[in-house]
Amino acid sequence: MNDSLTAEQIIENFKKCSKDPVFFISNYIKVTHPKRGLVTFDLYPFQQRILKDFSSHRFNILRKFRQAGCTTLIAAFSLWLAMFNPYKTIAILSKGEAESTEIIERIKLMHSELPDWLKPKVLEDNKHTFKLENKSVIKSKASSKQAGRSIPGSLLILDEAAFIEHIDTIWAASYPIISTGGSVIALSTVNGIGNWFHKMYSEAIAKENNFNAIDITWKEHPEYFRHPEYQHLYDLMEKYDPPVNIDEWEKTTRANLSLKQWLQEYEANFLGTGETYIDGEILVQLKEEISNDYKIKYNNRMRIWEDPVPYHDYAIGVDCSIGRQRDYSAFHIIDLYNGKQVAEFYSNRTPINEFAKIICDEGRLYNLAYVLPERNTIGNNLIYFLKETYEYENLVMDDSREIGVQVTQKNRETMLADMEHTIRTGRIKIASERLIEELFTFVIDPDTGKIKADNNCHDDLIMALSLTVKVFNELRGNSQIEKDSVMDNAMSPEAIFTSKYSYTAKTATGGISKEDLQWLLKN
Ligand SMILES: Nc1ncnc2c1ncn2[C@@H]1O[C@H](COP(=O)(O)OP(=O)(O)OP(=O)(O)O)[C@@H](O)[C@H]1O
Ligand SMILES: [Mg+2]
């Protein structure tokens, strides 16, 4: 729009700008396009749609594809909000320092390119802050653990939220400030599952939180997919060096990316790239199979899906903590006949002797279940209680004939790999939602390759599961779940154990030989 306007036109346009961010941005904001240089931010229809959602919802979560123009869009929207609304405080949080200063730079450029009659005076202008004469201020920060505490209350923008470190902490600290009347825009390319962005987005889709979910697809972007009304753009693109053929864009881009990258960066596919240890698609499927139909025991520390069934054998894998709220003590009970998780214990406030007593009581209740504790540090104390104080009769030993498993870096990975395989092949059935939730945040560190719980997350249920699965696999061998035709169906095991196992169990007082075990296994 040219600048030689009459006084009335200026007033009219100013009013229009103040009311409508789409009008303001499409007419007066300039951006640098990677190929075309400084151009008017002529908003694509999907960008206009996003802005309308920003205006009509207080909490927005936007799942984007790469290079959708979203950072530019939030920069322009922030400038609009600050210019036409006095005393607003807008905080833009980015994953790093470079990204955060770059956003302020974009906003400054947008401001400097405004026509004089529209351009507000600037009160403060530095690397992270841009304050206008109406006292509205835009602050751009890099993520840090403390960032949430100093978030002002008007609008919080989280750019590339799935990549922001400490976002759970930041969200917890900033929510009370925002919730009293501010608004939020969280936008991101997807980055696997289990993180804050995935959780919030999924809840928004399920209408379980206050966020309005916004979805855009790369096919809406006229520079990626042919839209007949943008022929002028395609003519221009063919003149680029090297020329871009719009009809070849998808093919060329896909050829330059791995399938995983394509699914993440452009298809916004949460499942395609999960860095979760267990494949994302499997986790989503497992989540559908969980059951919230359980009984509780021990003051809600134990969940029980199935009571013991006569003639069934059970395995209990135990992960032990000090019981002083830092991490959790956990065990699962799995039915060795059908692989079903029938119970789970989880607590960060159970003293070790009480924990041992519960294991013994439950082990005896579940037909003298095979109990495999971890033998590290505190685990030794637990074993002492299990063996000497409560004289549990069926503690599983390792190859060196010591009770429990000494978990080392090396065998931890093997145990986890076995657990993954056992889950993936459907040989065990997980009932616990919180165990699945833990698996959602159990990741492979992209830098070190280490398998670990994500920041601020736990893996106690997983470690207990890997121990339980160890017993399950050793006793079950590789046999598939099948019916034992010899026995009466009502009381028959659903699987036949093979004789291949490396554990021998023993009683606290004496011992059970391999032959005894063989008999126990009903083979
Ligand atoms: N409607 C438009 N007209 C012209 N240029 C645009 C338009 N929308 C976006 N751009 C340009 O596209 C480029 C990418 O934009 P931007 O960096 O905002 O995208 P993004 O979605 O944040 O990308 P990333 O995934 O890299 O974070 C920028 O150079 C921006 O100026
Ligand atoms: Mg961006």
- Count structural domains: 2
- The level of helicity is 25-40%
Helix-and-strand structural type: alpha/beta
Write down the overall geometry.
elongated
Uncertain ranges: 480-523
Which small-molecule ligands are present, each listed once? adenosine-5'-triphosphate, magnesium ion
CATH architecture of the largest domain: 2-Layer Sandwich
Number of strands: 20
CATH top level class name of the largest domain: Alpha Beta
Strand sequence of the main sheet, in spatial order?
5-6-7-4-8-9-3-10
Largest sheet: 8 strands, mixed
Question: Can you characterise this structure?
Answer:
It is a single chain. Helix 4 (70-84) crosses helix 5 and helix 11 packs antiparallel against helix 15. The protein is built from 17 helices and 20 strands. The chain has 2 domains: 21-223, 3-Layer(aba) Sandwich (Rossmann fold), CATH 3.40.50; 280-520, Nucleotidyltransferase, domain 5, CATH 3.30.420. The N and C termini lie far apart (86 Å). It is elongated and about 95 Å long. The model is unreliable at 480-523 (pLDDT under 50). An 8-stranded mixed beta sheet has the order 5-6-7-4-8-9-3-10, sandwiched between helices. Strands 11-12-15-14-13-16 form a 6-stranded mixed beta sheet. A two-stranded antiparallel sheet has the order 1-2. It is of the alpha/beta class. It binds adenosine-5'-triphosphate (ATP) and magnesium ion (MG).
